[in-house]
Write a structure and sequence with these properties.
The complex is a heterodimer of chains A (329) and B (269). Chain A folds into two domains: 244 residues, Rossmann fold (3-Layer(aba) Sandwich); 60 residues, ACT-like. Chain A, domain 2 (Alpha-Beta Plaits, 2-Layer Sandwich). Helix content of chain A is 34%, strand content 30%. Chain A is built from eleven helices and 13 strands. Chain A has a six-stranded mixed β-sheet with strand order 5-6-7-3-8-9, with helices on both faces. Chain A has a four-stranded antiparallel β-sheet with strand order 11-12-10-13, with helices on one face. Chain A has a three-stranded antiparallel β-sheet with strand order 2-1-4. Chain B has one domain. The longest helix of chain B is centred in the N-terminal third of the chain and has 28 residues. With 269 residues, chain B is mostly helical. The chains are: A alpha/beta (329), B mainly alpha (269). Chains A and B meet through helix 2, helix 3, strand 5 and helix 4 of A and helix 1 and helix 5 of B.
């Protein structure tokens, strides 16, 4: 069943431009030039109840803006959104009780107080029954392994610990929909991993719908069976992340190591040389001609090691980032 | 009716929790807490100077005796003090608009204005103001020999509350402009200066200024009406206006609030 429906969603920001220096500032004081920036331009997609969907895209692609419109923080310029039957930016209390948003760069915790105090505030705000609150809190704190930190002031917590507390604060009222905006940004590898594992487990267990943005493909791979790539404000890919490199499906990568140093000339006949470093090389080869190519390689060169791989997901993503005209890093 | 009462209890409960958390936060930073009280004492002394000046002169200005003027100034100091209790929210609003920290607050199933303007309460600054203001009011009231009846006290309190409410709305409006203009320091200074017209009773000003301050930008209602009511100097029409004006300004402020939230762009991040 569809829980999120987005149709032709567009958000345009107006901003003023300023020429450099004092002269520009003076001109700006009297005659201000404004320009329009389209952050999201007519995107459409739908998410089913219980799905975990990743939103990918380069900086400025409109991922966060989309999440902010879905959570009712921003009004759209045009387009339609229905989440669980509600229009998010009408900010109806019933809708606000049914979702939660966690942003890696923003906090809802009171920094000078222990996280437990913010949890209690949320209990009162969402009017959660005391026994149910205690049960949920126990469950979440043990899953995230932060029970011993509940009494510590938030500002004394590490970034990873803080993010775990943010997740608990967001999930206490058992939302049906969870929006996550870069939840692992700036975290160390272990914290990233434990948050990923938690979110995956939580999605599986509770069937909470998750919409997640991240720059880390590992986040998306671990949590989201489906990904939507947004670029230049529109959807350029929608499907399992593993398929993102299928645009390169007819290509394979062959990495090989020889007994002696190689040179580009002798490799050119086998495929496109991607990298060459003394006795190791990386070749891009047509899948159809792979078998013949390998046979010829073994015949022509003193090969000691050889490996055939798919084009990595990151290259597929980069392809889609570039596709809409905006260069990705 | 039952549902309304449940709503009121819900919001009062939240306000109580905000008060508790704010107090707990402030106790974390003792020096800051004490410094806040000290600064407010300084401002209060400046306001008291007017009172001392008026008392020393012993003059009657446009029908107001020195003691009645003391009551007006006392009300001003007290109401300002109570306003200072929620000032941290107002002060932080333009900053929150600029850096997008309103985001999380806007997703909560609570009235957004309640959450944004009453979340942080300050306890240090209001203490000296409220104590000193009350002292001036009681002293002026006694010296003037005004009867202490239930109607008088209730009327005084009601007009103090509407005065506080007006202060809240009148100071929030310029802050709301930050949704359009981001930086509003100039506008805030302007509204403070207009508010400071209350340093002295309105009778001191020429008639046209009084009219402006009663009807157009009703700042004079805040500190003059409680005293004028007790003196029996308010006509029924004025009493009605004194009760209606805060609601009118509140309606304007709510309208602006809704428009402002539509304008909210949130910082990218």
């Amino acid at each position: 069943m569809e829980i999120i429906t987005v149709k032709d969603l567009t958000k345009t920001f107006t901003y003023s431009v300023k020429e450099k220096g004092l002269r520009g500032s003076l001109r700006n004081l009297f005659a201000r030039q404004t320009r329009q920036k389209t952050a999201v331009s007519g995107i459409s997609f739908a998410v089913d109840q219980g799905e975990a969907v990743g939103l990918l895209g380069p900086n400025g692609a409109g991922k966060t803006t989309t999440l902010k419109m879905l959570s009712g923080i921003l009004y759209p310029t045009s387009g339609e959104v229905k989440v669980a039957g509600y229009v998010p930016w009408e900010r109806q209390r019933e809708y606000q009780r049914r979702f939660a948003i966690v942003m890696g760069q923003k906090t809802q915790l009171w920094p000078d107080l222990p996280a437990l105090d913010t949890f209690e505030l949320n209990r009162r705000i969402y009017q959660i029954d005391a026994a149910e609150y205690q049960r949920t809190l126990d469950e979440l704190t043990s899953l995230l392994d932060v029970r011993s930190l509940l009494q510590v002031q938030v500002r004394r917590l590490s970034l990873g610990e803080r993010m775990k507390m943010e997740l608990i604060a967001a999930l206490l009222h058992r939302p049906e929909i969870l929006y996550l905006d870069e939840p692992t940004i700036g975290l160390d590898i272990l914290s990233q991993r434990s948050i990923r594992e938690f979110l995956h487990y939580y999605n599986q267990q509770t069937k909470t719908t998750i919409l997640l943005t991240s720059h880390y493909t590992a986040d998306i791979e671990a949590i989201c069976p489906r990904s939507i790539i947004i670029n230049h404000g529109s959807v350029v890919f929608d499907g399992p992340l593993a398929e993102v490199s299928e645009v390169f499906g007819h290509k394979k990568l062959v990495s090989l190591k020889a007994r002696r140093d190689l040179d580009a000339g002798e490799l050119a006949g086998f495929g496109t040389v991607r990298r060459l470093d003394h006795n190791t090389a990386l070749l891009e080869v047509d899948r159809d001609g792979l078998q013949g190519c390998l046979q010829r390689l073994f015949g022509a060169l003193p090969v000691v090691d050889l490996d055939v791989k798919d084009i990595p997901i990151e290259e597929g993503i980069a392809y889609f980032y570039r596709k809409a005209g905006v260069g990705a890093q | 009716m039952k549902r309304l009462w449940a709503r009121v209890r819900y919001y009062l409960g939240l306000l109580g929790l905000f008060a508790k958390y704010s107090l707990m936060e402030q106790m974390e930073y003792r020096i800051n807490f004490v410094a806040g009280i000290a600064v407010e004492c300084g401002y209060m002394l400046i306001k008291l100077m007017y009172a001392v000046l008026i008392l020393n002169a012993g003059a009657e200005i446009n029908g107001l005796t020195a003691n009645e003027m003391l009551m007006c100034i006392g009300t001003y100091i007290m109401v300002t003090g109570i306003y200072m209790g929620i000032y941290p929210n107002f002060w932080a609003l333009p900053l929150s608009v600029r850096d997008g920290s309103l985001d999380m607050l806007l997703t909560k199933p609570v009235n957004s204005q309640f959450l944004i303007t009453l979340r942080k309460l300050d306890f240090g600054m209001p203490i000296p103001d409220v104590l000193c203001g009350l002292a001036l009011i009681v002293y002026g009231w006694q010296q003037q020999g005004l009867p202490v009846t239930f109607a008088n006290v209730a009327g005084f309190v009601v007009f103090c509350i509407t005065g506080w409410f007006l202060t809240y709305c009148l100071f929030l409006i310029p802050e709301l402009l930050s949704f359009w203009f981001i930086s509003t320091n100039g506008l805030q200074a302007l509204s403070s200066s207009v508010f400071d017209f209350n340093n002295t009773p309105m009778n001191i000003y020429p008639k046209w200024v009084q009219r402006l301050g009663i009807f157009l930008l009703p700042v004079f209602l805040i500190t003059n009406f409680p005293t004028l009511f007790v003196m029996g100097a308010l006509s029924p029409a004025m009493i009605l206006w004194g009760l209606a004006a805060p609601l009118l300004i509140f309606a304007v402020q709510r309208f602006l609030w809704r428009r402002a939230l539509r304008r909210y762009t949130s910082a990218s991040g």
